[in-house]
Amino acid sequence: MTGVRDIAAVGPFARDRRTGRRVGAPYASELVWAVAFILPYAAVFAGFGLYPIAYGLWIGKDPALYAELFANAHFFEVALNTAIFAGFGANAMMVLALLLSGFFMQRRRWIKALLVLCLLPWALPAIPAYVSFHWMLLGEYGLLNSLARELFGLQWPVWFNERWTALAADIVAYMWKWLPFWILIFLAGRMAIPPDLYEAADIDGADGPRRFFHVTLPLLANLYLICTALCAIWIVGDFSAAKLVSVGSPGMSSEVLASLSVRYAFVSSRPGLGVAAALSTLLVLVPLVVLLMRRIEARRLQL
After folding, report:
1. Which of 170, 201, 260, 284 has the fewest CB atoms within 10 Å of its CB?
2. Quick check: 97 pLDDT over 90?
């Protein structure tokens, strides 16, 4: 028939028998442009993603580094600090973020203004924020202790003289900095819940706590677990809070694995041991992530 091409299927593409051109296949110029657009991104990924990871693994490949690391009793103290920081800090922050997101769901104007103020710690740069926390708690003449003494006559402890109060200061500072981010995540999750479900719960006579436990919490449970896993991963990889708030005081007893790796690599000039300390965080991360992923999978099968 005139105007209809004689097409035969050859390989993955159809081929026009008269011209020999593959029908549906991209032209050579299109392939060149596609490769030209992909190559810069591939080069950046290889140069700033794959190469640093591979180089770090190469530096930390010597088993003697891990033997030296595990032979030091201070390592297990630091690993315990990291587990407490990630376990307690992540869960406490998720609970507060979930509850505060319900508060900020209200439609009053002053609550919306308060939400904007709540986001300010997240918008601040981490370094000046943590340094400010350090000076607020430093010694008996720090801002917090001075206010407690002048206004209420209280004599509070010197926070960085004890391991547990120093670690608590690091956790509180980290939560203050990153809590607004997780509030926004749960706020978005709450907004995605259909209002019809709450209306049906109201018709059934459910009050506020029952709506939360029987409607909101089941629908946000997977989001909660995923956010907890992400938060724990980010906490384990963060060194700035322990490095800038408590500075490892007293006697480096409030360090975490991330700050320990930085100290080995840059202060002690032992990059291999620093990489080994950084890779040892997998001892904390892998069991935590596996546990949370199994919990998410179990909930998915139940639903």
Report:
1. 201
2. yes
Question: Are 214 and 290 contained in the same domain?
Answer: yes
Number of domains in the chain: 2
169: nearest Cα among 178, 177, 160? 160
Q: How far is CA 93 from CA 88, 180, 227, 259, 288, in A?
A: 8, 10, 10, 21, 16
- Whether residues 163 and 188 fall in one domain: yes
Q: What's the first-to-final CA gap in the chain, in angstroms? A: 57
User: For residues 144 and 134, what is the distance between their CA atoms, to the nearest angstrom?
Assistant: 11
What is the pLDDT, as a whole number, of residue 299?
64
How far is 278 from 265, CA to CA, in rounded Å? 10
Tens-digit pLDDT profile for residues 136-192 = 988 778 888 888 888 888 888 888 999 999 999 999 999 999 999 999 999 999 999
In this structure, are 14 and 89 located in the same domain? no
Reduce the DSSP state of residue 189 to 3 states and report it.
Answer: helix
Domain annotation covers residue 2: no
89 and 213 together in one domain: yes
Q: Give residue 231's pLDDT band: very low, low, confident or very high (50, 70, 90).
A: very high
- pLDDT higher than threshold 90 for residue 301: no
The predicted pLDDT at position 295 comes to 74
What is the rounded CA–CA span in Å between residue 47 and residue 41?
10
Cα distance between residue 97 and residue 231, in whole Å: 12
Distant-in-sequence, close-in-space partners of 240: CB < 8 Å, separation ≥ 6: 126, 127, 130
Domain that holds residue 176: 63-302
The CATH number of whichever domain residue 184 belongs to comes to 1.10.3720.10
Q: Assign residue 23 a region: left if phi > 0, alpha if psi is -120 to 50, beta otherwise? A: beta
CA distance 210 to 203: 13
